[in-house]
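are you around this afternoon, could really use another pair of eyes. what follows is a protein written twice so to speak, once as letters and once as structure tokens for the fold. i want to understand how the tokens follow from the sequence so walk me through it. anything you notice is useful, everything is just below.
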Amino acid sequence: MYSCVKTAILNGIEAIGVTVETDISEGMPVFDMVGYLSAEVKESRERVRTALKSKGYSLPVKRITVNLAPANVRKSGTGFDLPIAVSILASMGIVNSEIISEMMIVGELSLNGDVNGVNGILSMVISAKESGINICIVPEANYYEAKLIPDMNILPVNELNQVISFLENLEEIGNANEFMKNYDGCKDNLIKDNNVDGQYDLNKDVNEDNHDGLRDEAYDFANINGQKILRRACEVAISGMHNMLMVGPPGAGKSMIAKCIPSILPDLTVEEQIQISKIYSACGMFQERQGLMSHRPFRSPHHTISPYGLVGGGNVVKPGEISLANKGVLFLDELTEFNKATLEILRQPLEDKEVCISRVSGNYIFPADFILVAAMNPCNCGYYPDLTKCHCSERSLKNYRNKLSQPLLDRIDLCVQAQTVGFADLKRLGTGEPSKEIRTRVERMHEIQRRRYEGCDFRFNSQIPVSMLEKFCCLNEIEEKFMEQMYSKMNLTARTFHRVLRVARTIADMSGERDIKVIHLQEALCYRAMDKNFWGGDT
């Protein structure tokens, strides 16, 4: 007897629909699984066989063939266990094959028949909705995650017999919509019965504040003392979504300032929340949440991170830190301690706002639209150019400078020097301008850019393509002559020149000016001058 069950597989952060086909026929007793399967999917055969046996269902002594279609897509993960088991039960005549054809089923099985959670449920439910399916059977551990998608009927299960019971009730009522009405009325009790510790609270608002980022009273610009130039640079960077590098001696507060940046970032749109949530869901970092990611992410990987950990990849391709920081901040502390080859990988994502990973199994595109905030010391000892404290040799300085390439520095819009904090500034703890006030100005700047770039495929000043700089960053005669002089004097590259214009556009917006003035260009060039002071022409 033939049956089929719809399920899904993750392909990067998106889901692809998969059909589990089962045929039980006369012949030599064998259990075959085909369809371009990975090792963990092939192991599903034994998990399914044992789980069914533990629940009192023995496989018939016949030829059992399970096909996972389409056959040209490699299947990986453990979410196929439950749909395979249900498909076999349908072929055995235990459940109605017509009922299961109207839904998507996902879940991993334990040997005792329990249903375990899987990664990427959010993307799978979205894929089911787009294909016209409105009923999904998912592991109870993934219930809240799946329930975030509106207009979808989610059936949470924690063991195989519960799945069979659901399907029998559906068959008795004969109408899936009528069954879901009854189910919605009693699901509170079902969840409560299956979670004696009260893990789920169905009356809780799923869109509540979940504190995803670092919005904490401890990380507020009110607690930053001194560093007026650095505070100003942070506001410019976030207003136009520009990349920023902080260079300064140890203890100047670079890391503290970086951790305060999320407190001035505007709220995410619904579309951005869904995109970020899909990334975290695919990485298995979204379970037991009760709402979409509501704050912009802040990621701070250690300098020992591998290239795969930073940009994504691996045997089972998953997003890396740059994708986990999508629509948020990627903070690289002690920048020069990172492997140089690892840092160079950032060059393409910083330009394209996405990363493409090519493998034999296929091509994977992950979003990487983040703000890069980096911090480093000016030399090995940390005190250059203060020669009263710095004792690094010329050779040591040159080797230190060569840890960062000029092409990478050219992709950073603002390079700012952090000064040592004096005792008088420390005495004024908590007297700085609070993040709330800065955030209000940032939101106003973002709204200006939203209106200006309405109808374009970019949103912020930092993203203005070169072809449209003449339109949005037009210079008058005086400003053009000034930039002509500075281009030669500062030995700018074409890329740095374009970035100066974008930063000047942001500064002009913050000043309430329609046109870019010389004073705006001067401030933007100050943020480029510092890297020349430290690296000069040696790189």
The chain is about 40% helix and 15% strand.
